[in-house]
Amino acid sequence: MAESILEVKDLRTYFYTEAGVVKAVNGVNFRLEKGQSLGVVGESGSGKSITALSIMGLIKPPGRVISGEIRLQGQDLLKKSRKELEKIRGNDIAMIFQDPMTSLNPVLRVGEQIAEAVVLHRKVNRKEGWNVALEMLKKVGIPEAEDRIRRFPHEMSGGMRQRVMIAIALSCNPKVLIADEPTTALDVTIQAQILDLIRLLQKDFETATIMITHDLGVVAEVCRNVMVMYAGQPVEYSDVTTVLEQPKHPYTWGLLSSLPKLNASGKQRLTPIDGMPPDLGNLPEGCAFAPRCPHKKPVCERQEPSGKWLSPGHFVRCHLYEA
Amino acid sequence: MANSIKDKIVDQAEKGGENVLLDVRNLKQYFPVKKGVLQQVVGQVKAVDGVSFRVFPGETLGLVGESGCGKTTAGRSILRLTDPTGGEIIYKGQHLEKLSPRGMRPFRREMQIIFQDPYSSLNPRMLVHDIISEPIRIHHLAQGKGVEKRVYELLDLVGLNRKHAKRYPHEFSGGQRQRIGVARALAVEPELVICDEPVSALDVSIQAQIINLLEDLQNELHLSYIFIAHDLSVVKHISDRVAVMYLGKIVEVAASSALYAEPKHPYTQALLSAIPEPQVSGTKKQRILLQGDVPSPINPPAGCHFHSRCRFAQEICRQEVPALRDLGDGHLAACHLAK
Q1: pTM score over 0.90
Q2: Among A78, A172, B227, B276, which residue's CB has the most CB atoms within a 10 Å radius?
Q3: Are residues A240 and B280, on separate chains, in Cβ contact within 8 Å?
Q4: Which pLDDT tens digit goes with each residue over A203-242?
């Protein structure tokens, strides 16, 4: 086995609201190797973004990480003080968000925003920071970087802003990059440009990437492994080919058959998943997917499936495979 | 059965049949750009710049394009939600662009719209019952007990529970809200429904539920749809014919299967090649990467609007605006070079 960079064990993040405890992340496990790319897919409310924020140490009250381990090169991030975390965040782990407009500072020139991270983490002076910023803007494919570096975010298009976000995230050469729906707000042609860039940078920087998305097409483009999440838990984990072509979990089946296919010939009716995702503050007993599952057995409504490795590298949490 | 009807519609559309429901000719919608204390007009945003297409009874016309291409604006000006700057909108032989607000009223009943965001398109202070019955009362389609009966019928039709009538929009999920929006649009028994990104805000599993609902309703009630969306796989799935827009103009129109199998316009080709598909093995399609961003609609490039990003651009493209030409079988493209 290759060297593991990030290892998450039994991560649970709950939100203590007035209406009750919302179990947003409810037992997530995975490990990420150097230069590897993991896609985390699921619908809204499946806990994929909260998993990312938990890893970054960005969960705010009423939310709390109640148990688990997040090991970055062997060190448990959950045991670090806030000061120590500040050194790690942006340096060893960086994150790109969905909306590049709200995550950039509107009153700072983009150059200063990149240089800020560099000056803080690499202990260089502003002049050098500015030079790194310029170099990064060129690396992420921004034309006329010498001019653009002095611009404000509002003077740039959505695709350009996302490139700036990527430049900031990669400026300190992080070991892990978490991208939370990085192309959801972009048009397809711009999305294609950004996905190409992410793939290129994965090779160049050997950064391990966690790609959070609801789009299985995006996963097929940039990820080697996929974790499918439902109601705060991983329900299936494997390499991307297995998940897309031989999925085992009924939820993954449902997701794939809900999608209109581009290469379908003639009109075929879509097969949606019945019902709605469960209320995370009031999860059903047993398997969380059981109420919507066309293959449910009596045991599914009584007992939570513990999950099983069907083969090395293919994990499924479903009673259909538990003997 | 349903398929053969659909085939007939496409056939008719390709031959330019007589039976046109909506005929949009050279539609223009400009918005003034104002500047300074005196609010002088310094330019025009040409959101829709000479768009022509037809909709036949019972068909779904897909309108696709990237953000800012004018697809939503086109939908809104057809309904006269904004007053078009120029062009003709002919619905069943009637010129809508000339009508007064009062004259428009009977047509408002026949043409409805479903919006993208089911969170902001429903009044949060109104009960579902009131949301759905408002159009019925405005158009005097039922009285007294009849209103309630009709509301229940509509709730059944869109797959909601009758007891949902006494709830407020915030008590529903996104998919259910979209069903309420559909019920409201259908309350007045329209013939043409403009669906403006009706599933973009929904998760895939819910998205498929709404798409199926829209298809069922079309078969049952013989509706015509203009389906506006940016998701090309969804548009392909639901549409009989598809029109592709770029920077305020239609660049290509064809039967859905023909457009996706053999796109003629370089922009359509690039757009289709950019869609990430959830498959790993098999032949990977060659991606055509477009350089740069969409130019500003205030000052679009001269000649063909797409020439600044087109890999085939030649001298003629920089000078002359290409017309939407029929390349055979009702496959239209606005490109000097397309064959």
Answers
A1: no
A2: B227
A3: yes
A4: 888 889 999 998 898 999 889 999 999 999 999 999 999 9
Tell me which of A12 and B329 has the higher pLDDT: A12
Selection from A257, A229, A306 nearest residue A318 by Cα? A306
Print burial letters for A158-181: b (CB count within 10 Å at least 16), e (below 16). Answer: bbbbbbbbbbbbbbbebbbbbbbb
Q: Which residues are bridge partners to A229 per DSSP?
A: A234
Confidence of residue B2 (pLDDT cuts 50, 70, 90): very low
CB contact under 8 A, B271 and A189: yes
Per-state percent for chain B, helix, strand, coil, to nearest 5: 35, 20, 40
Q: Is the pLDDT of residue A159 over 80?
A: yes
Structure tokens at B81: 């939600």
Q: What's the pLDDT at B158?
A: 92
Residue A1, pLDDT score: 53
Chain A residues in contact with B208 by the CB 8 A cut-off are 257-260, 270-273
Which token pair is B299?
């000052």
- Enumerate helices (H) and strands (E) in chain B, giving the number of each: 11, 12
Q: Give B256→chain A minimum CA distance, Å.
A: 10
Record: contact A258-B233, CB cut-off 8 A: no
| Residue B39 contacts A where some CB pair is shorter than 8 Å | no
Q: How close B146 gets to chain A, by Cα (Å)? A: 31
d(CA B234, CA B301): 30
- Identify the structural domains of chain A with CATH numbers, from first to last: 4-92+174-262+269-321 (3.40.50.300)
Pick the residue of B172, B197, B203 with the most A CBs within 10 A to test the interface with A by mutation: B203
Cβ of B205 within 8 Å of Cβ of A265? The answer is: no
CB of B48 closer than 8 Å to CB of B115? no
Q: Closest Cα partner for A265 from B218, B61, B14, B261? A: B261
Average pLDDT value for residue range A75-104: 87
The DSSP element (H or E) to which B197 belongs, if any, is none
pLDDT at A102: 82
Q: What token pair was written down for A290?
A: 């059981």
Provide the angle, in degrees to the nearest 10, between the axes of the packed helices A158-170 and A126-139. 130
Cα dist. B112→A115, A252, A293, B54, B91 in Å?
52, 36, 36, 17, 13
B115 neighbors B171 (Cβ within 8 angstroms): no
Q: Is the per-residue pLDDT at A135 higher than 60?
A: yes
Helix axes B145-157, B174-186, angle to 10 degrees: 130
Q: Residue B202, Cα to own-chain centre: how many angstroms?
A: 17
Q: Does position B16 have pLDDT exceeding 80, yes or no?
A: no
* % of chain B with per-residue pLDDT over 90: 62
Coil/strand/helix, residue B57: coil
The rounded distance, in Å, linking the Cα atoms of B177 and B253 is: 32
Pairwise CA distance, residues B242 & B247, whole Å? 17
Polymer length in residues for chain B: 339
B332's tokens: 């239209």
Buried b (16+ CB within 10 A) or exposed e, A208-222: bbbbbbbbbbbbbbb
CA separation for the pair B97, A161 (Å, rounded) = 40
